[in-house]
Design a protein that fits this description.
Distance between the termini: 61 Å
CATH architecture: Roll
Largest sheet: 6 strands, mixed
Helix content: 25-40%
CATH class: Alpha Beta
Strand order of the largest sheet: 2-1-6-5-4-3
Mean pLDDT: 87
Structural class: alpha+beta
CATH topology: Nuclear Transport Factor 2, Chain: A
Number of helices: 3
Order of helices and strands: HHEEHEEEE
């Protein structure tokens, strides 16, 4: 009986440890994808940015009065923004990632700065992004951003 309990505990610990490592790896991937999306914006690389956006993307932006829908609408809006802005930089604080199967969401605080149409900006806010994993790649399918005072 002692051996059964010991073996059961051992198997439980091994299974939990393996799951945590996989989860941690995926969590880091989600953070890396988001940072790479921002890097693409900072460098004006709209094709790289677009490669992370799911065709069914939706967004509630900081200044949007209605839901923005579709990859094409998102890519067009970001392209227009980066064509009129420089230098853009975004930082993430306190990211928290939750993953269930092929769906992940990340919540975080952000701050960004730059200049748009010659006017400097520096804002901060909070955000939730949802990602889905398709063909081994995490794609952003939804973003919700709220400005903080």
């Amino acid at each position: 009986m002692k051996n059964v309990v010991f073996i059961s505990c051992f198997i439980f610990l091994v299974c939990c440890t393996s799951y945590d490592q996989g989860s941690s790896k995926d969590s880091e991937q989600i953070k890396s994808v988001l940072i790479d999306m921002w890097d693409a914006i900072e460098k004006g690389d709209i094709e790289r940015y677009a490669s992370y956006i799911h065709p069914d993307f939706t967004q509630f932006g900081e200044y949007d009065s209605v839901l923005r829908s579709g990859k094409q609408a998102e890519v067009k809006a970001i392209k227009n923004w980066i064509e009129n802005s420089t230098p853009i930089h975004t930082e993430m604080r306190d990211p928290r990632v939750t993953i269930t199967g092929n769906t992940a969401f990340i919540t975080y605080y952000w701050s960004d700065s730059g200049s748009t149409d010659g006017k400097a900006f520096a804002t901060q806010g909070k955000s939730t992004r949802i990602f889905v994993k398709e063909n081994g790649k995490w794609l952003c399918i939804h973003g919700h951003y709220t400005l903080l005072p």
